[in-house]
Each structure stands twice: as C-alpha cells, then as structure tokens.
Amino acid sequence: MKKLLIALVSLVPALTFAAGSNVPLESANIDLHDKASLERGLDLFQKYCSGCHSTKYQRYSRVAEDLDISIDDMKAKYKYNDSKVGSLMENAIPAKDAAKWFGATPPDLTLVARVRGEDWVYSYLKGFYKDPSRPFGVNNRVFPSVGMPHVLEELQGVSEPVFETQQIDGVEVQTLKELTPATGGSMTAEEYDQAAKDITGFLVYSAEPIRLERESTGVWVMGFLFIFFIVAYLLKKEYWRDVH
C-alpha cells in the first residue's frame, strides 16, 4: 500500500506538466508510417534544435535503422559531432553554459511528445509571437512566458499578438485573442505548417520508437485471443454436454 501511494504521488508532477495551458490546440495528425516526413523532421531538429536540446534516449544508429537512412547518410547529413554512430543523440551545448545563457538548462526532448502530446508540440511550434517584454523578444501562446528564442523564426517569420480586454471582478484584463499571420520568414504558411508537423512527427517517433511494432503486435494478439475464445467456448460446450 505504501509503495502504491508513493507511485501515485510521483505521478503528480508529470500530470501537471502534461496539463499545459488552456489554449485550444491544433490537431497534428501525425502519420508514423510517413518516413519521409520523419526524416525531414530529423533534419530540421538537428539543424535548429539539437544545438541546445538533446534526444539522449535515442541512438543515431537506431534512428537510421527505423527511418531507412543509411549509416553513411546519417553520418554525413544528421550527425554534427565526432561521436560514434551508435552513441546517444546528445546536444552540443554544455549544461552549465546553457543554464547561464537561458536561465535554465534546455530540457531533453526525447519524451516531450509522450508527456505533452503531439497536438501540444505542434501548436507550440506554431505559437510564437512578438513580445518585446521577454528576454528574447518572443512569447508563446501555448507556453506563456517561454524562456527560449524562436529558433525557427527565419522559416516562419514572426506573428503579432491581438489582445482583447475583459472585465474580471471589476478589473480590466488583457487576454490573447489570436495571432496575425507570420511575416518575414523564408517559408509560406503552408510550408511552415508542414515543417512543424515534420518536427512533431520526429519527436512523436522519438518518444516511442517501438510504437508501430507494438500496435502491430497488439492486432495479432487480439486476433489470437478472439480465435482462442471461440475454441475455448466450443470446448466448454463439449465438456458440459453430458452435464446439461
């Protein structure tokens, strides 16, 4: 009983972390069978995110195998350090320097899609907007007071916030209503939507590389149980025929 209570208490921080904000999330509709999208997500993650964020519970060799990437291509295109291809996907920035520059060490993102959900990650990547009051000049509608820069700004551009004023208990409160279309990026809105989906897909895959295999195995298990149920039912009728 004591161990059960300890386990339940340990879940509280994770549940709080997963709750996030109350902003409606956009649907990502990730297809883990689309390996081309996952590879594009890997490419974007390595170029724009891996300098600060790691996926240290993944190995380059496992990603290459799962996404049908040759080891030579993995080394040449997606591995930006001298580590072996079988090593974990660590980030490039030292933890102490990251904490000094950003106020806190950027978290590992291997499991972020499993904790937050794919819709949260997708909406977060699309949720940055201009906010001069923040240290890096941007904020995020999904993660208010975000402590990181908008590293994909050169792709998406920057959005302007649109606020509305509400009366709450006699006090005027400004709330974020919507964001204007982003401008100044190298991608169109449709292209950036796909880029955000690609990165999200890679993080969904990273959170559970065995997911497709698990789901496939689950179908076979359910089929076996269904057939076994029929056989067991027929045996039961045969054994109990004389009794009835």
Automatic annotation (TrEMBL):
Binding note for cofactor: Binds 1 heme c group covalently per subunit.
Matches recorded under PROSITE patterns: CYTC
Chief place where the protein resides: membrane
Domain of life of the organism encoding this protein: Bacteria
Residue intervals of the Cytochrome c domain: 36-207
Protein's cellular compartments: Membrane
A GO CC annotation given for this chain: membrane
Regions crossing the membrane: 217-235
Pfam family, one: Cytochrom_C1
Binding site for heme c: C49, C52, H53
Entry keyword Membrane: yes
Gene3D superfamilies: Cytochrome c-like domain
Entry keywords, A to Z: Heme, Iron, Membrane, Metal-binding, Signal, Transmembrane, Transmembrane helix
Required cofactor names: heme c
GO MF annotation list: electron transfer activity; heme binding; metal ion binding
Signal peptide (UniProt feature, chain positions): 1-18
Protein name per Swiss-Prot or TrEMBL: Cytochrome c
Organism expressing this protein natively: Shewanella gelidii
Source organism phylogeny: Bacteria, Pseudomonadati, Pseudomonadota, Gammaproteobacteria, Alteromonadales
